[in-house]
Amino acid sequence: MKLKQTIKYSLITFTLLSSVSAFAEVAVVVNSGNSAALSQDDVSKVFLGKNKSLTPVMTQGGPADEFIEKVLARSPSQYKAYWAKLAFTGGGRPPKTDNAASVLSEVASNPDAIGVVDSGAVNGDVKVLFTL
Amino acid sequence: MQLNSFSGLAAGLALSFNAMADIQLSGFGTLAAGLPTDSDTEVRNYSDSEVDFKTGSFLALQAYADLGDGLSATAQIRARGIEDWDPQFTWAYLSYEVQENWRVQVGRQRIPIYLYSDYLDVSYAYHWIAPPTEVYQSFFDSIDGISSIHDFSVGDALINMRVYYGQENTEAPDGNTFDVDKVFSTVASVNYGWWTFRTTYVQFDLSADLGLAPLVGAWQQTPFGYVGSDLDIQDDKVDGVEVGVIYDDQNWLFVAEYIPASLDNTLIGDFEPWFVSAGKRFGSVLVHGTYGRDKAETGVDLSAIPRGIDPTLDQLTATTEQVIAGRTRNSSFYTIGARWDFHDSAALKAEYTNSEQTDGSDAGLIQVALVTVF
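Above: the input entities. Below: the structure tokens describing the complete assembly.
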């Protein structure tokens, strides 16, 4: 019984830890032909529509929310309010959202794309700018 | 606009002729309930002594089609409870990107006289249920015309410059009609970090029917015909300026706006409304407070009218003084409220507004709203 409980608790702990680390691993990726050195600030401008030189695309939920909070310095609902404001005034469209595989293939095929994905999904077709 | 043309548009969208067009539908809405705390007052169009679900509620749908090569089409339809949910085209314009960061829009579009004009109806994008109508009292918010919108950056500051030209006709809920012509407006805004600074200049020719034709006619029968022409608003020039600032670091929020406008020697006269607003976020809840003043003076001058000589003239003067009193305000208001982001696409808001009436008494309004974007 005791052993069972220990196993149960360590499993819970493990699950919690791994989910925390899964959340923490976000990768910002660009096309492998893109040699520009982009800071977090530059990336933030792209995802907030202040710099239109790159086409942003991101996944939804978990890792993307982490990116929104850390790099864009907003909560996901504040991010949504920010884009509601721009989109409904003709001032731009929010970054496209898609599943990880589509984000990666978009970045791999479009030299001007920049993507946000779970770093666990990253493959060799794209270049990792930084992870969080 | 009737529902059949609304569904006609929906069908038109579904059967897009341009196979390349990527049509995006989105929308927003506010479902609000309001209750004045005193039964015989009117605050922000709420006057019933029971909970009113209609006055402040509306839904809007926006369709955006990217037609390629820098051309896009945007249409927005809004149905408001106060207009018996009769849908109206609030926007219908074509936008052409002449160069990167420079676009020209032709058609029916919002004219951003105020800080929040651009997204006046998108309550999800700001803290209040709606911007204070004590300050945002323009009788028009859209024009049929053309605009040029330019974005550029200077260092870390983003600058947005716009020029508008067009016209508009509106009818207020009280039946007054406004014919706004030769609208010319320039808007400049600077976004730097968490700061937004904005200024607007607007001018237009105004002809209005305020239901005063008999009074105007009566004055014109007297030697003081100029009072009649002051009361009559025909092709009079209106000039207005707006300055506003928003600071929002996603923790603290601060907004201030001042909008002096004038229509010399007329009943509409001078306006000088302003407000300040501050908010603080606690997790998914934002609490806020706003204080402002609605100041208006008419430009009708009765000082040269002799009193106590002619009874008819005295009566005309008395009636005119009543009309002037109804349009003279120096009233303060305040709002305290909260916004709760309980859902990804919706927020719940509650507010209490206290608005000083023209007679100096106070009137309160409690409002609760569910606001959404989709």
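Note for the figure: The interface with chain B takes residues 50, 52, 73-78, 80-82, 84-85, 87-91, 93 of chain A (CB under 8 Å).
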